[in-house]
Design a protein that fits this description.
With 506 residues, the chain is α/β, with parallel strands linked by helices. It folds into 3 domains: 93 residues, NAD(P)-binding Rossmann-like Domain (Rossmann fold, 3-Layer(aba) Sandwich); 211 residues, Mur-like, catalytic domain (UDP-N-acetylmuramoyl-L-alanine:D-glutamate ligase), CATH 3.40.1190; 150 residues, Mur ligase, C-terminal domain (Protein-Tyrosine Phosphatase, Chain A), CATH 3.90.190.20. It contains 17 helices and 22 strands. A hairpin with a 4-residue loop joins strand 14 and strand 15. Helix 5 crosses helix 9, helix 5 packs across helix 10 and helix 9 packs antiparallel against helix 10. It is globular and about 60 Å long.
């Protein structure tokens, strides 16, 4: 099968639900129309997309962030005012304040809003309100949310269904679909059809959403700083699934057959439940060939669709299969959805090739990735080794990994120690400090992770900062090496720093 060849046999997805355009008149209410909404943390990917969506719904939008970025510049160009002096607590006249999950209750502008009697909503609540009267679609799971949401948004766009999409990553294909012209990279798309959102489980924020259709890609231990135990995580996903309406009202949940705790999560649900996975027992069985990247999707013993991915990895095969099933449920053509998935080039910071630099013996490929959970690290490194094959060129797979949050590192330290087996070298800067307490910061360090990795036979070293890592890489990489920079913090600066610095002269 060539990449351009798409095969769809038999029917599409087993379930069709109403689009927003099919809703009875009067259900297209826009509760934000005419309201002055001030958004604190407006420069985040999700928040900036929500800002544009609320403005499209008739709100007057302004906001603030800690520092300028490409996203805040884009907002300013579109006519949304953004300021960067948050500490004084200045707040313009407004009817509602919306904050990102990273903004705490002691933020000066939050305190100013409360002192005035202005309502303060978290991002998730405002996003949930945009689903009222619309075809709400939520993509949840410990891993794969951003990629699956972007794939789904593109498939719906390429099928002519004009979705609104809000996702925590950017992509140049989201605006016009994978079959349309490249657009500026963005984490949003504003349309007239279904409202498709990435549903984050941190602090139970996805409980504020109002979806009619949802998926749960997987459920694993994470965010234990707010959940305490894995059982707490599972219960939170169960409560999220319970938000879906009954099957008679179009409620549908697509859930991973493996690794999603589906027995507990789906118990007692009134919505339709369909499973997807590599097991033949799944309602939708996925087959994947790593050598060709061909994905096949079978149901009731028959192959329903097949496509060849541009992006590597079994995890992306599963992400794309989930997106195809959901797209069909929302009215997309099976052939158009498959064609779209075959042209999907990935979301930014998801195994994203930044560029190449010359080194003794050839070129070094530099890749950027957002992975920050042990499972994400493991599957990404495996996919990169399969796709890049550095060993075949006499090179190494070098991973620069910045742990994200001290609490996550401490809770999952044993799992992290087992996640880097595919890497030849691991370089670790200090843990990214965000949300955690000072006490938590004292309990674990990058050196602890490095020590665990060395116990497992992995060549690993801790560094004081990004500059030292760039210097080390510039002086030691050789032709055939692949450098992947991983983490949810500002570790992306290492990849760009390496490209800017070049390498040592041989």
């Amino acid at each position: 099968m060539t990449r351009a060849t798409i095969h769809v046999a038999g029917g599409g997805a087993p379930h069709a639900v109403r689009s927003a355009m099919d809703l009875p008149e009067g259900q297209h209410a826009h509760p934000f129309r005419g309201k002055r909404v001030y958004m604190i943390g407006i420069g985040g990917s999700g928040m900036s997309g929500l800002a544009r969506l609320l403005r499209a719904r008739g709100a007057v939008i302004a906001g603030s962030d800690r520092e300028p970025s490409d996203l805040t510049a884009s907002l300013a160009e579109s006519g949304i005012g953004v300021t960067f002096d948050q500490e004084r607590g200045d707040l313009p006249a407004c009817d509602l304040v919306v904050t990102s999950a990273a903004v705490g209750p002691e933020h000066p502008q939050v305190l100013a809003a409360l002192a005035r009697g202005v309502d303060v909503w978290l991002y998730a609540r405002a996003l949930g309100e945009t689903m009222r009267g619309a075809q709400g679609v939520a993509v949840a799971g410990t891993h794969g949310k951003s990629t699956t949401t972007t794939m789904l948004g593109c498939a719906l766009t390429d099928s002519g269904l004009d979705p609104t999409v809000i996702v925590g990553a950017t992509s140049g294909q989201l605006g016009n679909g994978c079959l349309g012209a490249e657009a500026p990279a963005a984490g949003f798309r504003i349309g007239t059809g279904a409202v498709v959102v990435e549903a984050c489980e941190y602090n139970r924020s996805f409980h504020a959403l109002r979806p009619r259709v949802a998926c749960i890609t997987n459920v694993e231990a994470d965010h234990l700083d707010c959940y305490g135990t894995f059982d707490g995580v599972i219960e939170s996903f169960r409560q999220f699934a319970a938000l879906l309406p009954p099957a008679t009202e179009g409620g549908l949940l697509v859930i991973g057959h493996e690794n999603a705790q589906r027995g507990v999560v789906t118990a007692g649900l009134a919505c339709e439940v369909r499973t997807v996975g590599f097991s033949p027992d799944a309602d939708w069985c996925v087959r994947y060939d790593p050598a060709t990247r061909e994905v096949g999707l079978l149901s009731e013993g028959r192959e329903r669709a097949a496509w060849r991915l541009r992006v590597p990895g079994a995890h992306n095969a599963l992400n794309s299969a989930t997106a195809w099933i959901m797209a069909g449920a929302l009215g997309a053509s099976g052939e158009r959805a498959a064609a779209s998935l075959a042209e999907f080039r990935g979301a930014d910071r998801r195994m994203q090739l930044l560029g190449e630099v010359e080194a003794p013996g050839g070129v070094v490929r530099v890749i950027d990735d957002y992975g920050h959970h042990p499972t994400e690290v493991e599957v990404t490194l495996r996919a990169l080794r399969e796709a890049e094959k550095p060993q075949a060129r006499g090179g190494r797979l070098i991973c620069v990994f910045q742990p994200h949050q001290h609490s996550r590192t401490r809770h999952l330290l044993d799992q992290f120690a087992l996640s880097f087996g595919e890497a030849d070298v691991v370089l670790v800067p200090p843990i990214y400090f965000v949300r955690d307490s000072e006490r938590e910061r004292d309990l674990v360090s990058s050196e602890d992770l490095v020590a665990r990795l060395r116990e497992k036979g992995v060549e690993a070293q801790a560094f004081a900062g990004f500059e030292q890592i760039v210097e080390r890489l510039s002086g030691t990489v050789r032709g055939g090496d692949v450098v992947v920079v991983m983490g949810a913090g500002p570790v992306w600066k290492v990849g760009r720093g390496l490209l800017a610095a070049g390498t040592r002269q041989g």
